Amino acid sequence: MKLYISAASPFARKVRVLLLEKRVPFELAVINLWEPNDLQQVNPIGKVPALVLDDDRVLTGSALIAEWIDAQHPQPRFIPADAGGRLEVRRTEAIADGVMDAGATIGTELRFHDEACRSAAFLQRLQGKIDAGLAALERQLGSRRYLCGEALSLADLAIGCHLGFMQARMPQCFNAAAYPQLARLAGELAGRESFKTTAPPPL
After folding, report:
1. How many distinct helices (H) and strands (E) make up the chain?
2. Chain-centroid distance, C-alpha 25
């Protein structure tokens, strides 16, 4: 199978980290989304990640791709097999992804609109979504090692990748002092080989 990513995408990184943690072999295609490329031949909407399976079917979206990978390669599991545990991990992953969606929209606004064209109210609203999501995850994590249960899960990989991106590219969006437990978790994950290998490149 072949995984299409951009080097900086935290959503693509989540999938890549999952594959590395499971030691699943895959071919990697790194796409520069801001230069001409053939990604739309794989994913019509031109987004990463996209995973081309061995039977040529294409999976898009990090949540769907991660679901398929964990089902096909269940050792070690990152999404629990039991319904309750599964729901908790996927629910938490969705909050983490929503935080990053808001951050990505801020990044787009700052990149493509000069200051005179930016909506301060819109940016404030997006930051509010980030802060509310992070506050919920901070409460959930508390003093526990992981977000869901006693084992590393997809929820942890998601927030680790997203906070890694914010710390590298958008530090104004993540106040580590306000979320010390999440900062702790992100720091621990950053020390894992899968995270070191996939760290976003500097600007």
Report:
1. 7, 4
2. 20
Q: How far apart are CA 49 and CA 65, in angstroms?
A: 8
Residue 101 clears pLDDT 80, i.e. is over it: yes
Please name every residue paired with 59 in a beta bridge, in sequence order, or none if there are none: 51
Could you tell me the pTM of the whole model? 0.96
- The predicted structure's pLDDT at residue 4: 98
Tell me whether the omega of the peptide bond preceding residue 76 falls within 30 degrees of 0, making it cis.
yes
Phi-psi sector, 123: left (phi>0), alpha (psi -120 to 50), beta = alpha
Please count the other Cβ atoms lying within 10 Å of the Cβ belonging to residue 139.
10
- Please work out, in degrees rounded to the nearest 5, the angle formed at the alpha carbon of residue 79 by the alpha carbons of 73 and 85: 145
Residue 31: per-residue pLDDT: 95
Bridge partners, 52 (sequence order) = 2, 58
Contact in structure between 182 and 161 (CB atoms under 8 Å): no
- Tokens 């938490």 -> residue: 92
Q: In what order do the strands lie in the sheet with 27-30?
A: 27-30, 2-5, 50-52, 58-60
pLDDT confidence band for 113 (50 / 70 / 90): confident
Tokens, residue 10? 């935290």
Rounded Cα distance, 153 and 27, in Å: 23
Structural domains in the chain plus CATH codes? 2-72 (3.40.30.10), 83-197 (1.20.1050.10)
